[in-house]
């Protein structure tokens, strides 16, 4: 039988190589020594780069050099395409080969996130392309031996398993070669690589989880980049890290309902302790694997397997027999066994399996802390390639095999073990509704989002503003029979209450007068407002520039609680938070504003009634000028003893029909025009309010 002709992607010939060097250390040694495989072509970023690698690694002179993935896909002399480039470049380099129906071997992870991994697997299925993925732990001799002992009942029924693993890298630094490990969007990092290979290892011995929970955290958001080739010299300081470095998973297995925990962390272990400490408890004893490295899919000669019998009270070290390919460099040994499983038509991991594993191991969302739940939905598919669905002989070998052609004609059923589409580092969004915008409701709005990542929290109240009982009860002398120092929020205490049982206006002033900075409106809501008030004219009016202008004026000179407006250019869009407005007959939306010391605020001292403030709440024009202005009342300590503020505010829709949105030029309207348009098109709302310790904000 002729040798399988390999097109290898990512064997770099550069002297200053950046990456893990996995192609030359793990794939090349086997491919150069095997009589059943031959490297027929190299694909790199350029033909010149591929030619340099051919010369560097002394490949045959007739090895083809390619710089374009399409050229490799078009080559009829390639039987197997092997992709060993950076994770986020997997799909783009193998896509043409998958579309050509070639067999494709891609290293783990399939790509940078679950969405692309699914697209990769779907493309392979659509073109009937055979696939292999670089998950090789199940072929490691120590893992096979461990699997054999478990299935032979050496420790009886498995009760629990705990795996503690150090990822080995320094918790405060990262190597320049893998600087991208700090960028979650690349997809090659501790979260995807380490978790994925560890899950595969545990699954291959104990079977799948039937349910699990996982949590993660970024304990070091900034790390230094070092050059180990230059003695560990720091070449970049305080580089932002978006990849979790603390990971905890726990769940139960399908086969024996055993409780399993996996705890992975960045950083070096305590001297004298193994980087990997995996213990499996059974009814009749324990199995323990210790190793100076986390990855059993790679392995080291120092890896130790021990068996403890409760019957004899003895601990014995279990020897693992030497096997074929042990003479290869360590990184290449289990990769060689994976290649051989493919060649012989035995079972091997495919893209479908990788996609399934990726549901818990490939990061998809950026978060410092997150949690994730997974559950089994429906019956386990009998043909899915996991340990609890395959046969193992007494030597630990996988005996349920199918030929390569059979695997193509009758692919394993898609696994029905599905999680809720939330990878391990993605925060599951929780929706919370708080009924009542009184002190308790507002306190929940302040505290809960800080404690629950990804929280979607909405506060509902039948009233037009916050305050709860203090909004409804404003009659002179109203007070509460709860002591003032007890009726307050711990995050914003007050030690200056005027009375032991303070009156309502004093309590409401403390917690409700200045609860929100308001900016109106969110673009979609602004358009909806025009449609809502002017349904017949809206289609034509919305073709031109339109604005929402609030006209705000004092009823008498204002000293207490003046109105401040922010410089719109000092407020980044990232600090604007869309907020639902729940009306009796519709749902609107506005923007709330996050606190930011970078905002620039302005106000008019002692503003008289004849001095009107025009507040731009929305402008459809996007030519760089201010589109919205946050505004809020504030406490001026110098005027606390003055009379409560009284003001009136009118919201006006302002239209510029001559200024079509597609027109590059725009003439700003005069304020006279604003006034006339407000009269022509009507007022959204008018409200006059004599403030009793609270600030009027018209949400209209």
Name the features.
16 helices, 700 residues, 6-stranded parallel beta sheet, alpha/beta, 4 domains, Rossmann fold, disordered C terminus
Q: Sheet with the most strands?
A: 10 strands, mixed
Count of alpha/pi helices: 16
Look at the structure and name the CATH superfamily of the largest domain. Answer: Dihydrodipicolinate Reductase, domain 2
Instruction: Assign an overall shape.
Output: elongated
CATH architecture of the largest domain: 2-Layer Sandwich
Strand order of the largest sheet: 17-16-15-14-7-13-12-9-18-19
Structural class: alpha/beta
DSSP helix fraction = 10-25%
Secondary structure elements and their pairing?
Layout: E1 4-9, H1 22-33, E2 37-43, H2 47-56, E3 64-66, H3 69-74, E4 80-83, H4 90-99, E5 103-107, H5 114-126, E6 131-134, H6 141-152, E7 158-166, E8 173-175, H7 190-206, E9 209-217, E10 222-227, E11 233-240, E12 246-253, E13 259-265, E14 276-282, E15 285-291, E16 304-309, E17 315-317, H8 330-344, H9 351-361, E18 369-376, H10 404-409, E19 417-419, E20 430-435, H11 439-451, E21 455-460, H12 469-472, H13 504-511, E22 518-519, H14 523-533, H15 538-541, E23 544-554, E24 563-566, E25 576-582, E26 587-593, E27 601-603, E28 613-619, E29 631-633, E30 646-660, H16 671-681, E31 683-690
Parallel strand pairs: 1-2, 1-4, 2-3, 4-5, 5-6, 7-13, 8-10, 20-21
Antiparallel strand pairs: 7-14, 9-12, 9-18, 10-11, 12-13, 14-15, 15-16, 16-17, 18-19, 22-26, 23-28, 23-30, 24-27, 24-29, 25-26, 30-31
Helix pairs in contact: 1-8, 4-5, 5-9, 6-7, 7-9
Family: Belongs to the asaB hydroxylase/desaturase family.
GO molecular function, one term: oxidoreductase activity
InterPro entries: AsaB-like, FAD/NAD-bd_sf, Gal80p-like_C, Gfo/Idh/MocA-like_OxRdtase_N, NAD(P)-bd_dom_sf
């Amino acid at each position: 039988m002729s040798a399988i002709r390999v097109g290898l992607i990512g064997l770099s010939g550069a002297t200053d190589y950046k990456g893990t060097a996995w192609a030359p250390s793990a794939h090349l040694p086997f491919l150069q020594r095997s009589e059943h495989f031959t490297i027929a072509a190299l694909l790199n970023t350029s033909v010149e780069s591929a030619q340099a690698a051919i010369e560097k690694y002394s490949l045959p002179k007739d090895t083809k050099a390619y710089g374009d993935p399409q050229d490799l896909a078009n080559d009829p002399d390639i039987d197997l395409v092997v992709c060993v480039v950076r994770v986020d470049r997997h799909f783009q380099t193998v896509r043409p080969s998958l579309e050509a129906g070639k067999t494709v071997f891609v290293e783990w992870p399939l790509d940078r996130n679950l969405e692309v991994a699914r697209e990769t697997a779907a493309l392979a299925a659509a073109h009937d392309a055979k696939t292999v993925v670089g998950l090789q732990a199940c072929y490691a001799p120590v893992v096979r031996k461990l699997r054999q002992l478990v299935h032979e009942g050496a420790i009886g029924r498995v009760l629990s398993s705990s795996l503690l693993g150090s990822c080995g890298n320094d918790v405060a630094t990262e190597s320049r070669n893998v600087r991208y490990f700090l960028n979650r969007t690349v997809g090659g990092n501790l979260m995807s690589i380490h978790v994925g290979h560890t899950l595969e290892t545990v699954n291959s011995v104990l079977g799948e989880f039937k349910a699990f929970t996982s949590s993660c955290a970024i304990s070091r958001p900034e790390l230094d980049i070092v050059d180990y080739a230059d003695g560990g010299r720091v070449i970049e300081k305080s580089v932002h890290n978006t990849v979790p470095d603390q990971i905890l998973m726990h769940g139960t297995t399908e086969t024996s309902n055993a409780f399993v925990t996996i705890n992975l962390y960045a950083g070096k272990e305590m001297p004298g302790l193994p980087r990997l400490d995996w213990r499996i408890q059974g009814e009749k004893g324990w199995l323990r694997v210790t190793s100076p490295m986390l990855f059993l899919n790679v392995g080291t000669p120092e890896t130790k397997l021990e068996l403890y019998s409760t019957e004899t009270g003895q601990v014995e070290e279990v020897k693992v027999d030497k096997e074929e390919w042990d003479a290869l460099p360590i990184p290449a040994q289990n990769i060689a066994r994976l290649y051989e499983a493919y060649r012989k038509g035995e079972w091997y991991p495919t893209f479908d399996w990788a996609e399934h594993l990726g549901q818990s191991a490939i990061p998809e969302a950026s978060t410092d802390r997150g949690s994730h739940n997974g559950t089994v939905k429906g019956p386990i598919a009998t043909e899915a390639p996991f340990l609890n669905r395959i046969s193992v002989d007494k030597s630990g070998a996988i005996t349920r095999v199918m030929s390569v052609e059979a695997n193509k004609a009758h692919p394993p059923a898609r696994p029905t073990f599905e999680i809720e589409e939330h990878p391990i580092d993605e925060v599951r969004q929780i929706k919370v509704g708080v009924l009542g915008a009184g002190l308790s409701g507002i306190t929940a709005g302040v505290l809960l989002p800080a404690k629950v990542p990804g929280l979607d929290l909405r506060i509902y109240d039948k009233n037009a503003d916050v305050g709860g009982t203090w909004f409804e009860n404003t009659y002179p002398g109203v007070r509460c029979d709860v002591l003032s120092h007890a009726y307050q929020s711990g995050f914003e205490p007050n030690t200056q209450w005027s009375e032991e049982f303070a009156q309502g206006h004093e309590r409401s002033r403390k917690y409700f007068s200045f609860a929100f900075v308001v900016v109106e409106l969110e673009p979609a809501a602004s358009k909806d407002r025009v449609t809502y008030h002017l349904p017949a004219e809206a289609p034509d009016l919305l073709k031109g520039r339109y604005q929402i202008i609030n006209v705000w004026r004092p009823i008498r000179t204002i000293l207490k609680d003046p109105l401040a407006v922010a410089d719109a250019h000092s407020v980044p869009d990232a600090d604007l938070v869309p907020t639902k407005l729940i009306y009796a007959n519709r749902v609107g939306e506005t923007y709330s504003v996050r606190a930011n010391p970078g905002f620039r605020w302005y106000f008019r001292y002692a503003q008289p009634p004849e001095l009107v403030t025009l507040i731009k709440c929305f402008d459809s024009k996007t030519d760089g000028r201010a589109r919205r202005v946050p505004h809020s009342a504030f406490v001026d300590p110098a005027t606390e003893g003055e009379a409560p503020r009284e003001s009136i505010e009118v919201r006006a829709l302002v239209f510029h029909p001559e200024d079509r949105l597609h027109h590059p030029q725009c003439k700003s309207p005069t304020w006279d025009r604003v006034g006339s348009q407000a009269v022509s098109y009507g007022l959204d709302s008018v409200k006059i309010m004599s403030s009793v310790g609270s600030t009027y904000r018209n949400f209209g």
